[in-house]
Amino acid sequence: MLRLYGTSKSRAARSILALEELGLAYEHVPYGKDLRNPHSEHRKRLNSLNPNGHVPVLEHDGFVIWESMAINLYLAETFASDLWPADARSRGRIYQWSFWAQTEMDRKDWESVRRSADADALKKMTDAKILTLSILDHALADTKYLLGDSFTFADLNVASTLSQPNEEGRIDWQRLDPNEVGLPHLGDWLRRCTNRESWQRVARYE
Length: 206
What we know:
This protein has nine helices and four strands. By secondary structure, it is of the alpha+beta class. A hairpin with a 2-residue loop joins strand 3 and strand 4 (63-66). Helix 1 (12-22) packs antiparallel against helix 7 and helix 4 runs parallel beside helix 7 (153-162). The two termini are 20 Å apart.
């Protein structure tokens, strides 16, 4: 039994996409707005599963794991697929790009700027984000996907960090268009990723 807690309009989307790409049967428990109520049954249930009180959380036959990237890597290792290469060096590249997305894009300092009304800080943050993304753009200059010609968990993990299914192929809450900010290779790759059936299905989820 697989059960995934978390709305598709959060970082839980990354793990829902993994479940969809792997073709697994699972139960999706959205756990939306009432998590803001500390006394709601959903909040109490979530706190019992994850001491951080965050989604997503995955239950698998009595095993509980949280943190979306950890969930995805667990799923990749547990359920054999073409998305998870057999050789250690290719898997190492998946770890590399997955952790890069976490450390370079999911940044608390950028999130703080997002919540501020400081236009100058927002401009500096956006410029820094585009500069960081140029590393990914360069890596994609001569390849269809991050590991070559085939879509893997490297692409799933990075693309879902940049653009959740509800963000319609644009980058992050700013809805940046890669081609408009000088990242054409990234733009082509992101379009290939977000046009996959899994992204289209999850975009319709709660």
